[in-house]
Amino acid sequence: MKPLISVIVVTYHRVEALKRTLESLRRHVDVDDYELIVCDDGSPLAQRRQIRGLDVDRIVWNDRVGYGANVNSGLRAARGEFVFHLEDDWVVKRPGHFLRAGVEVLNTLPEVGCLKFDDNTPALRARRRVGGYTVEVLAFPNHARAEEYRYTNRPHLKHARFHQCYGMYAEGHCALETERLFAMHVNAVRASRVGWMHDSAHFRHIGDEYQSYSILGPKQTPAALLEPWRLS
């Protein structure tokens, strides 16, 4: 039987951050019907051994394929009607109904295919009320401004069919370029809108506590972090 939600956690070389993120999810996720998928993009062997021992439903192993391909591997493995997508450095701080409410919003507002949980709100098309929650719907001319508010680097919930509309993420690029290209594609196709729920109080970003390689492209070495402006 298919789960309601596939929770995809994207990781590379930050097993301690990943452990904290997974523990917070198990403690605070407000639905029971979900599967937990970790996508690892070639972490060192010692870290892979630790990841293999984690209490998750599935691990997708990749070998430095880059951000877009790593995310895509998780999307292909997902079986849920909805996908909750986050990186390995976002912890859930407290119990709440953010996933349950998010599913209600996506079922109630057919024009919204992706729902972000943060307070970085751009120019908006409309504001909706669903249950006790306020949802702000993004205006299409602003979808392409990925430099200001990217879709994938913050926790978000989406219909599985969101990627049936827009396809998968571009591969062979660093994370920022991958997100920019996807945002431009969403803006061009305009098949489904992106919404915001001001619920960032549930999440805390811990990435600054760990060295991150998320800006790297496929097969790039960690030394490239010393000169990130040279990345394509």
Describe this structure as you would to a colleague.
The protein is an alpha/beta fold. It has one domain: Spore Coat Polysaccharide Biosynthesis Protein SpsA, Chain A, CATH 3.90.550. The chain is 28% helix and 26% strand. It contains six helices and eleven strands. The strands form two sheets. It has a nine-stranded mixed sheet with strand order 3-2-1-4-9-6-10-8-7, with helices on both faces. A two-stranded antiparallel sheet has the order 5-11. The longest helix is centred in the C-terminal third of the chain and has 15 residues. The protein is globular, with a radius of gyration of 17 Å.
By DSSP (H or I, 4+ residues per run), the number of helices equals 6
- Helix-and-strand structural type: alpha/beta
- Gross morphology: globular
Q: Low-confidence runs (pLDDT<50, min 5 residues)?
A: 221-232
Provide the residue-averaged pLDDT.
82
For the record, give the distance between the C-alpha atoms at the N and C termini, rounded to a whole number: 42 Å
- Strand line-up of the largest beta sheet: 3-2-1-4-9-6-10-8-7
Strand content: 25-35%
Helicity level, as a percent range? 25-40%
Taking all Cα atoms into account, the compactness measure Rg is 17 Å
Topology, number of strands: 11
Main beta-sheet strand count, sense and barrel state? 9 strands, mixed
Helix and strand sequence: EHEHEHEEHEEEEHHEE
Number of domains: 1
Task: Give the name of the CATH architecture.
Answer: Alpha-Beta Complex
**Regarding CATH, which class?**
Alpha Beta
Q: What is the CATH topology assignment?
A: Spore Coat Polysaccharide Biosynthesis Protein SpsA, Chain A
The CATH superfamily label reads Spore Coat Polysaccharide Biosynthesis Protein SpsA, Chain A
